[in-house]
Design goal:
Strand order of the largest sheet: 6-5-7-8-4-9-10-11-12
Radius of gyration: 26 Å
Mean pLDDT: 88
CATH superfamily of the largest domain: P-loop containing nucleotide triphosphate hydrolases
Order of helices and strands: EEEHEHEHEHEHEEEEEEEEHEHEEEHEEH
CATH topology of the largest domain: Rossmann fold
Distance between the termini: 79 Å
Strand content: 15-25%
Helix content: 10-25%
CATH architecture of the largest domain: 3-Layer(aba) Sandwich
Number of strands: 21
Bound molecules: thymidine-5'-diphosphate, magnesium ion
């Protein structure tokens, strides 16, 4: 049986113990994890000496170092200006979404601006990394590369005092002092903890790239959220081109800002104006535009639906739209609007890679299903917004004026909107206010003739 770590009599240990299976922390070593009940799973995590001193609060220097612009404007927007020296940012998202590309773009921009930048690559070879960097453009000087899976090497590399350093990924680092497997909670946490501490002392803005599995759980890095200063998620359908950056935690500013990027052959760039709101050229039944709000941004998104005879049991497939909302809308369409899809396959999705999950997209989603079921195409110059209630009513949405303005910006001429809710005058675009989904369907049909 494993022995508890030795203790020095009279010295109070600040070490904590972390379970290698479930990540539970305990102040004392125990033979059995208090969290999951696993035997001999607790491992010691050495605490750093704190070295705290008592100081006069009024004397504290508040002129903190200014943030370093990341060079990617949309990332800076989310960060509230840039990367704060000595801070740690966790960048996570599904495989293939573009984390490595974004991190590398940041390093290239930082190096091009004359600062020292460093990539600690734990997943890819030097050649793989350099190949990706070449796709982004000429590689600037001052961009260092260390390929290692050893935390000690990574920590030592920060000793070069880079202005910005990226660890891609933290999940692949290994601390030889722990017996837990690479990628396990104690390993990832130990690596992150040591790196954060060193980054603070070298005043390096550190970016840790983390993995997330398909079901959205942060595998390992979930355990890092409280260790780091900022958590940014890269969202989007990796088969589409648009990506959203969203701060889930930000110690240095608000978290309601989102960044928008487009993945192109030469890396990630701010999308051109006409990419946003770009609609399919086809005007066919089942396609309806809407405007979603996210942070201070508004996006025109195309919602698509298809209804088909089932090959087996009827299926409801929702991609980038909420499957709960889809089920609810199909029930409302059936009960309140006589639009029946029972026994049929229903597919719903958005085009372009941006998700549309807020209730304000209900009207467009329901209209898309109604138009494909009833066999009429909704004109591409129509945009629909509104939440649908169980009584078949169209409910008010927040930010209606902003949505109408965005619709006009991308060339829409008519907005189908709820009867309720404040709306300022917006010149150059018509708004039909509808009290119910039936009215909205009628309005869309008659305006599309
Ligand atoms: P990557 O950054 O490796 O994703 P992650 O680190 O999140 O797993 O890139 C994902 C995809 O982006 C990959 O399939 C290739 C594509 N890509 C481009 O389209 N353009 C580019 O310039 C680069 C570097 C990658
Ligand atoms: Mg990667």
């Amino acid at each position: 049986m494993t022995q508890p770590p030795p203790r020095v009599a009279g010295v109070k240990s600040k070490d904590i113990h972390v379970c290698r299976s479930c990540g539970t922390t305990a102040l004392r070593w125990a033979g059995r994890c208090p969290g999951c009940g696993e035997w001999n799973s607790l491992e010691v995590l050495r605490a750093a000496p704190t070295g705290s001193v008592l100081e006069e609060m009024g004397d504290v220097d508040v002129s903190a170092d200014p943030p370093t612009p990341s060079g990617v404007g949309e990332f800076d927007r989310v960060l509230g200006g840039g990367l704060v020296p000595g801070s740690t940012t966790l960048l996570f998202g599904e495989p293939g979404v573009g984390k490595s590309t974004l991190a590398l773009s940041v390093l290239c921009a930082v190096a091009a601006a004359g600062h020292r930048a460093l990539l600690i690559a734990s997943e890819e070879s030097a050649a793989q990394v350099a190949r990706r960097a070449r796709r982004l453009g000429p590689i600037p000087s001052g961009l260092g590369l260390v390929v290692t899976t050893d935390v000690d090497d990574a920590v030592a590399a920060l000793g070069h005092h880079p202005r910005v350093a990226v660890v891609d990924s933290v999940s692949a680092l290994n601390d030889g002092g722990l017996t837990a497997a690479t990628g396990s909670v104690p390993q990832v946490r130990q690596a992150a903890e040591r790196l954060c501490r060193v980054a603070k002392s070298t005043n390096t803005a550190l970016i840790l790239v983390g993995h997330v599995t398909k079901d959205g759980e942060l595998a390992g890095p979930r355990a890092l959220e409280h260790l780091v200063d900022t958590v940014v998620r890269v969202e989007g359908d990796r088969h589409g081109s648009l990506r959203l950056l969203r701060a889930l935690k930000h110690r240095f500013g608000p978290t309601d800002e989102v960044g928008l990027l487009e993945m192109v052959g030469g890396g990630l760039r701010a999308p051109l104006d006409d990419t946003l709101g770009r609609r399919a050229a086809l005007e066919v039944p089942g396609v309806v535009g809407t405007v979603t709000l996210d942070g201070s941004r508004s996006f025109v998104v195309e919602v698509q639906a298809l209804v088909a005879a089932p090959t087996g049991t009827a299926r409801r497939v929702a991609h980038m739209v909420s499957s709960q909302r889809l089920s609810l809308l199909l029930a409302v369409l059936d009960a309140r609007c006589s639009v029946e899809t029972g026994g049929l396959d229903v597919f719903a999705s958005t085009a372009g890679g941006l998700a549309a999950t807020e209730p304000a997209v209900d009207a467009a989603l329901a209209l898309a299903v109604a138009s494909v079921t009833m066999g009429f195409a909704v004109s591409r110059s129509i945009v629909a917004v509104g939440e649908v209630g169980l009584a078949g009513e169209l409910r008010a949405v927040r930010g209606l004026t902003r949505r109408v303005r965005e619709a006009r910006r991308v060339g829409a001429t008519l907005v189908i909107a709820p009867a309720d809710g404040d709306l300022d005058d917006v010149a150059g675009i018509d708004v039909v206010r509808c009290g119910s989904l039936i009215e909205a369907i009628e309005a869309a049909r008659s305006a599309s003739k």
